[in-house]
Amino acid sequence: MEEIQLLGHGFAVALQWENVLLMVAGIVLGVLIGVLPGLGGANGIAILLPLTFTLPPVSAIILLSCIYWGALFGGAITSILFNIPGEPWSVATTFDGYPMAQQGKAGEALTAAFTSSFVGAFVAVVMITFLAPLVAQFALQFGPPEFFAVMFLSFACFIGLARGSPLKALAAMMFGFLLAGVGMDGVTGQLRMTFGSMELMRGIDFLVVVIGLFGLSEIFQSIEEGLRFKGARARITLGTVLRTWAELPRHWALFIRSSLIGCWMGITPAGATPASFMSYGVARRMAKDKDSFGRGRMEGVVAPETAAHAAGTSALLPMLSLGVPGSPTAAVLLGGLIMWGLQPGPMLFVEQKDFVWGLIASMYLGNIVGLIIVLAAVPWFAAILRVPFSIIAAIILMVCAIGAYTVNSAEFDVVLMLIFGVIGYVMKKLDYPLAPLVLALVLGDRTEESFRQSLLLSEGSLAVFFSNWLVGGIMTLGLVMLFYPTLSKLWAPRMQPA
Amino acid sequence: MSITTQDSVLIPSAEAAAERGPSQRGMEIATAVVLMAAGGIGMMDSLRIGAGWGTDGPQSGYFPFWLGAILALASLGNLVVALRDHRRGARGPRFATWGQLALVAQVFVPTAIYVAVIPLAGIYVSSAVLVAYFMRRFGEFRMVTSMLSGAAAALVSFVIFEIWFLVALPKGPLETALGY
C-alpha cells in the first residue's frame, strides 16, 4: 500500500494554503469557462497556460486541472437551465435535464447532475490512484518501439471508435501531424514546411491552434445559430439537495455502470462526449419504461453526467503514466508539462513524486471543493448567461487574442488563431472531429521521435514494431482498433438472429 | 437564491433569412480538395529535404512524407464519398444559409480588422474599440455606455496582464505617450 503513503504526501502538498486558494480560483474560473459559450476546458486552459510559468509546476497543474473540473461541472448548468450545452459532453444532459427544469424541478436536476459528476470523477480518481502507478511501472520497460506502438494504439482508437466518418477522423489527424512537423526538425535541425517564412520557423504552437479551433470557431457557430437564451427557474435550497441526495442511492447500479463506461472511454481516447451519449443510451435501453426518457427522468441526468466526468477525469491516467493524453484538454495539460520542463511518461512517477501525487490528491480535493461551490453558487453562474451576448462575445474574442499572443509574444500567432477559427468552424460544420487534430499536433514530435529512434535501432526495418510480444501485442491491438468498423461490419450479419 | 425566467433575444435570429446557401456537398468537396493539396504540399516539401534513409538514419522528410501521403489518400476517399452523394443541387442539404453566413461575417470581419490593427494600435486600444463596436452594433447600447465599457475592459486587462502578471502585450502610440 505504498500508494496510500504517497497519496498522503500528495495531500500535504495539495493542502498548502496557496494551492487550496488556486484550487478554489481554478474551480470558479472553470465553471465560468464551462458556462460561457466560446470558452471551454481545452482552450480556457490553453489561454491561461502561459500565465502559469511563474508558478511551481505542481501549483500550476493544480490550478489548470481544477479549471478542467470546473468546466466539467459548468457544462451541466447551461444544459439544464437553458437547454444550451456549454460543452459538447453535456449535450446528453439536455435530453432530460431541460424537461426537468421546465417542470419546475431544476434544483433537483442540478443537484443530481453535480452529484453524479462528483461520483463519476471520484471513481475515476480512485482508479487513477491505484492503476496509474502500475501502468507507469509497467511502462518503465518500454523502449522507443513500445512508445510508438502505444501512440499508434491511441490514434487507431480514434479512427476505429469515431462516431462519424473514419476517413474524416484520419484526415483531421494527419493534418494535425503535418502541422506539428512545421518548423525546425528537432533531430537534424532541418527546416520543414516553412516555405521561407520566418514566422513558421518557430513551428505552429498547439495552444494557438486550440484557441482558434475551440474558441473562435465556437463564437462563429453560436452567432450563426442566432443565440436565444430562455432560462428556466432554478432554486437550490438545502432541502432540495437533501431530498435529491436521499433519492440518488436508489440508482446505485446506474452510477456503477455509468462510471465504468466513463472510465473505459476516458482511458481509450474516445473522450467524455461519446461516453456521455453511450451511458445515456445504455441507461435508456435498460430501463423498464423507455418512453419516459427525454421527458425529465432523473436517470437521464445521472447517466451522462457520471460518465462524462468519469471519462474526463480518467483521460488523465494515460497522460500521467504514459505521456499519451486521452482528451484534447488532457493534451493541453500535457503540453503544459513539457513547457514547465517535465518529461511526461512513466519516469514522472519516479522522478516527480511530489508533482504526480500532489496532482492526484488535488483531484480528490478539487472535486469536493467543486461540488460545494457549484451547489452554492448556481444562481450566480447562471446569471452570467443573462449578460448580453454582444458583451460576452467581444470579451471572449479579446481574451482569445491575448491568450494566443502570450504563448510566444508573437503577433503572427493572433493571425494564426483567426485562421484556425475559420478552419475549426468549417470542420465542425462538416463533422471533421477536432480532437484527433489536437492530439496529433501535441504528440506529433514525440511520435516522430519514437518512430525514428525505433528505425535507428532496427536500421530501417519496420519489423521492429513486431519484434517482441509486448510491442507486437500493442501494435496488433492498434490494428484491430483501426479496422474495428470494417471488422464489426464483417461480423454483424452473422451475429444477427436468423 | 433564484433565477427568474427571462426571454432575452441576444442577436437577430437567422430564421427570417432565406433558406438558400452554399451546399453541404460543395463544401465537402472543397474541403477534401484543400486537405488533399495540404497532403501534397507536405509530400513535396519532404521530398525536397529528403524522405529516404540517410547516413545517420531516417531523413527529416521521412515521417512527414508518409503523413502527407495518408492525408492525401484519406482526403481522396472523402472526395469520392462527397462526389457520390447524389443529394445535390437545391434538394441537397445546405452547409449554412446565406442569412447565417451573413451573421457569421458580421462577427468575422470586425474580428479580422481587430487582428490586423493590433500591431499598429496595440492590443488595449483595439480591444476597447472592439468591445464598444460589438455593444453598439449587436447590443444596441448607447454610444457612451459602449465606449465606457470598452475602455473599462481594456483597463482591466491592462491591470491584469501588465501589472499583475507582468506579461507584456502589444502596445501602440497611446501607451507610448502614457509612458509604457
Automatic annotation (TrEMBL), chain A:
<feature type="domain" description="DUF112">
    <location>
        <begin position="21"/>
        <end position="439"/>
    </location>
</feature>
<feature type="transmembrane region" description="Helical">
    <location>
        <begin position="20"/>
        <end position="49"/>
    </location>
</feature>
<feature type="transmembrane region" description="Helical">
    <location>
        <begin position="355"/>
        <end position="381"/>
    </location>
</feature>
<keyword id="KW-0472">Membrane</keyword>
<feature type="transmembrane region" description="Helical">
    <location>
        <begin position="118"/>
        <end position="140"/>
    </location>
</feature>
<keyword id="KW-0812">Transmembrane</keyword>
<dbReference type="Pfam" id="PF01970">
    <property type="entry name" value="TctA"/>
</dbReference>
<feature type="transmembrane region" description="Helical">
    <location>
        <begin position="169"/>
        <end position="188"/>
    </location>
</feature>
<feature type="transmembrane region" description="Helical">
    <location>
        <begin position="462"/>
        <end position="484"/>
    </location>
</feature>
<feature type="transmembrane region" description="Helical">
    <location>
        <begin position="414"/>
        <end position="442"/>
    </location>
</feature>
<feature type="transmembrane region" description="Helical">
    <location>
        <begin position="322"/>
        <end position="343"/>
    </location>
</feature>
<dbReference type="InterPro" id="IPR002823">
    <property type="entry name" value="DUF112_TM"/>
</dbReference>
<feature type="transmembrane region" description="Helical">
    <location>
        <begin position="200"/>
        <end position="220"/>
    </location>
</feature>
<feature type="transmembrane region" description="Helical">
    <location>
        <begin position="387"/>
        <end position="407"/>
    </location>
</feature>
<feature type="transmembrane region" description="Helical">
    <location>
        <begin position="147"/>
        <end position="163"/>
    </location>
</feature>
<protein>
    <submittedName>
        <fullName>Putative tricarboxylic transport membrane protein</fullName>
    </submittedName>
</protein>
<keyword id="KW-1133">Transmembrane helix</keyword>
UniProtKB/TrEMBL annotation, chain B:
<feature type="transmembrane region" description="Helical">
    <location>
        <begin position="63"/>
        <end position="83"/>
    </location>
</feature>
<feature type="domain" description="DUF1468">
    <location>
        <begin position="31"/>
        <end position="170"/>
    </location>
</feature>
<dbReference type="InterPro" id="IPR009936">
    <property type="entry name" value="DUF1468"/>
</dbReference>
<feature type="transmembrane region" description="Helical">
    <location>
        <begin position="29"/>
        <end position="51"/>
    </location>
</feature>
<feature type="transmembrane region" description="Helical">
    <location>
        <begin position="118"/>
        <end position="135"/>
    </location>
</feature>
<dbReference type="Pfam" id="PF07331">
    <property type="entry name" value="TctB"/>
</dbReference>
<feature type="transmembrane region" description="Helical">
    <location>
        <begin position="95"/>
        <end position="112"/>
    </location>
</feature>
<keyword id="KW-1133">Transmembrane helix</keyword>
<protein>
    <recommendedName>
        <fullName>DUF1468 domain-containing protein</fullName>
    </recommendedName>
</protein>
<keyword id="KW-0812">Transmembrane</keyword>
<keyword id="KW-0472">Membrane</keyword>
<feature type="transmembrane region" description="Helical">
    <location>
        <begin position="147"/>
        <end position="167"/>
    </location>
</feature>
